[in-house]
Amino acid sequence: MELTLVLAILVTVVGASTPILLAALGELVVERAGVLNLGVEGMMLIGAIAGFVVQFHTGNPYLALLAGAAAGLCASLIFGFLTLSLSANQTATGLALTIFGTGFSALAGASYSARPVTLMQPLFPLELATHPVGKVIFGYAFPIYFAFFMVVAIWYFLHRTRAGLILRAVGENDQSAHSIGYSVIGVRYLAVMFGGAMAGLAGACFPLLLTPQWAERMTAGRGWIAVALVVFASWKPFRLLAGAYLFGLVMTMELYAKAGGGPLSAIPSELWAALPYLATVIVLVLISIRRDATTNAPACLGKPFLPSN
Amino acid sequence: MQFRLEKRREPSRFMLYATPIAAVVLTMVIGAIIFSLIGFNGIGAVREIFLTPLTNPYKWQDLAVKAAPLIIIGVGLSVAYRANVWNIGAEGQYIIGGLAGTWVALLTWGMTGWWILPLMILAGIAGGMLYAAIPALLKTRLNVNEILTSLMLTYASVQLIYYLIRAPWKDPMGMGFPQTRLFSEAARLPTVIPGTIVHLGVPIAIVVALIAWFVMTKTVFGYRMRVVGAAPQAARYGGFSETKTIWLAMLVSGAFAGLAGVLEVAGPFQRMVPGFPTNYGFTAIIVAFLGRLSPLGVLLGGVVLAITFVGGEVAQTTIGLPNAATGIFQAMMLFFLLAGDILIKYRLRRVVPQAEARAA
C-alpha cells in the first residue's frame, strides 16, 4: 500500500479518536475518585450543542470548545448533587443524565439542524503540513494536541502529585481518607466536574472536528464507548491512548475499505457502522479472558459515601 | 434556618410511595418555570403534556397503545433491577423481538391460520431472550459489565434493522423505500375495542403486570430476586446462586422486551420500518423506577410516561413545543425521583442553633 494512503488514514484515525479519548480521560479521573458516572454520553451531547451554537454565532472555535466544556461541567453538577450530596444511585443517575442530555441537546438544537459551521483549522501554519509526513505531525487542530497533553498531565497528576494521591485514596478507601481528614465528597465533586468538562469538550469536538453541523444524537454512543475504554485501559491513562486510537481505526475502517477496494468493500455498510459497538463488546471480552477485569478497578467505584461516624 | 439529615430506624414506606408522586408534581412545577424562562409557554406546555391526554377522551386510546409496550418492558426491567442486574439494553432486545416476529410474518406471508400470530409472539419472546442471553453469558462467565454490553448490542441491533429492510427483507413493491412489505391479515394484532386503535397488546400488558406482581410477591422466584438484590450476602448464605439469578433476571427482562417488540411490530407498525427503534426500551427504565420496581407500580408508571408521550405530541401541534421537550420532562421526573430517594432512609430535621436551644 502507498505510504500516502497510510498517512492519510492515520490523520483520519487521530481525528476520530480524539473525542473518545478526551471523554474517556475525564471518566478515568472520575472513576479513580470512586464515582461511576454513566452520563458521559449525555454530557457529550450537551457539550456538542453548546459548542455548535457558539461556533455558529461567533465563529470562534476556542470559545466554542470553552462553551462545550462549561456546559458539560454544568451538566455534571446535576449528577454530582444527586449522587454525592443526596447519595442517589450512581448507575440510575448516570442513565438519567444521558436521557436528559439527549432531550436537552435535541431541544436546544431544534432550530439549528442542517445549518453548517466552519471546521476548526489546524493549529500550525499550513506550510508545515504540506508534506504527508508533516501533516501527520502538524496537520491537526488544537483539541488533538490537547488530548495528548492531557494523557501525560493526568498520568503525572495521578501518580506524581499529592493531590493525585489523595484522589486515588478517596477512590480506593473512602472511609480511611475521610478519617484522616480529607473531604471525600469535595474531592469527588471536583473529579466529577473535571469529568463533565472533559466530556463537554469532547462533545464540542463533533461539530468542530468531524461533521460541521448539528444532528440529534450526533455522538452516536461514543460516550458509552469512552466508558468501556476506561475498563479496557484498566484505569491507566497511557493505555487509554492506545485504546482510543484502536477505536478510531475501527471507526474509520469503512472509508479505508472503500478506498482500498477488494473483498472488504463488499461488506454491507451497516456492518461497518455496527463494528465499533461490536468491537467494544469483543474488547471487553478479551480483557476479561486475559485476567479478571475488575482487579484494577478502584475499590469504592460506584458506592455512595456515607461517613461512618 | 438549617436542615440536617438524620437516619431513620427503618425505611419509610410512606416516602417510598410519596416520592414518585412528588417527583411528577415537582416536574410539572419546575418544568413550567424552566420552559417559561427559556421562552416557551411553560404553563401551557405542562397543561398540554400532562393534562390534555387525560381530559380528552379521544386521546385515551393513544395512551393505552403507548403505555402497553412501556409497561411490558418496564415489568421485565423491574424484575432485573430488583436483582441488581442492570440490563439497560432493553431497546435492543425489543428490536430483536420485533425483527424475529417480522421474520415469521414474512415467512408466512400470504398464508392464513390462527397459529401465525402465536408463532410470531413466541419468536419475539425468543429473540429478546436470545439477545439478552449474550450479556448474561458474558457477565456470568467472564464478569463483563452487563450495562456496557447490553447497550452496545442495542446500537448494533439498530444497524441490523437497516440492513435487513434495505436488502433481504425489502418490500418488492415498496418503490425503493427501505421497509418490509405490509404484514398479511393473519400476522396483524387484532384490535380489542372496535373502532379504536386499541390492540390486543393492551390487555396483554395488563395481564403481564398482574402475573408478574403475583410471581414477585407470592413465589420463591420473586423472593429470590428480591433477596439477591437487597442482600447478596444473605442470598448466598440462603443457597441462591448469583449466577443463576443473573441468568433469570436477564432472560426474563429480555423476554418481556422481545414480547413488547413483536406486539409493536404486529400492532401499530404492521411492517418493519426504519422508525421502529422508538426509545421505549430506554423510557421503560424511567417507568421501572417510577413504579418503584414493583409490577403494579410499573403499571401506573407506564401510564404516566405514556401521558407525557401523547401530551408531547399534543404540545407539538397546539403550542409548537419541540418534540424533544418530552424527553426533558421525562428525565426531570427521574432526577427528582432519585433525589427524593434519600427521604426514604433519612428524615429532614431542622437544626436548632445551640444558643436558641438553650434559651428554649
TrEMBL record, chain A:
Compartments it resides in: Cell membrane
PANTHER family with a match to the protein in the record: ABC TRANSPORTER PERMEASE PROTEIN (PTHR43370:SF2), SUGAR ABC TRANSPORTER INTEGRAL MEMBRANE PROTEIN-RELATED (PTHR43370)
The keyword Cytoplasm belongs to this UniProt entry's keyword annotation: no
Any one of the GO CC terms: plasma membrane
Name of the protein in its database record: ABC transporter permease
Transmembrane segments: 33-54, 61-82, 94-115, 136-158, 189-211, 223-251, 271-289
Pfam family, one: BPD_transp_2
Keyword presence, Heme: no
TrEMBL record, chain B:
Subcellular localization, as worded in the UniProt entry: Cell membrane
InterPro entries assigned: ABC_transp_permease (IPR001851)
Alphabetically ordered keywords of this record: Cell membrane, Membrane, Transmembrane, Transmembrane helix
CDD domains from the UniProt entry: TM_PBP1_transp_TpRbsC_like
GO molecular function, one term: transmembrane transporter activity
Top-level lineage group: Bacteria
Transmembrane segment boundaries: 21-43, 63-81, 93-109, 115-138, 147-165, 197-216, 246-266, 325-344
Pfam families: BPD_transp_2
Record membrane topology: Multi-pass membrane protein
Upper taxonomic lineage: Bacteria, Pseudomonadati, Pseudomonadota, Alphaproteobacteria, Hyphomicrobiales
Protein name (database record): ABC transporter permease
Coiled coil spans: none
Organism: Candidatus Devosia phytovorans
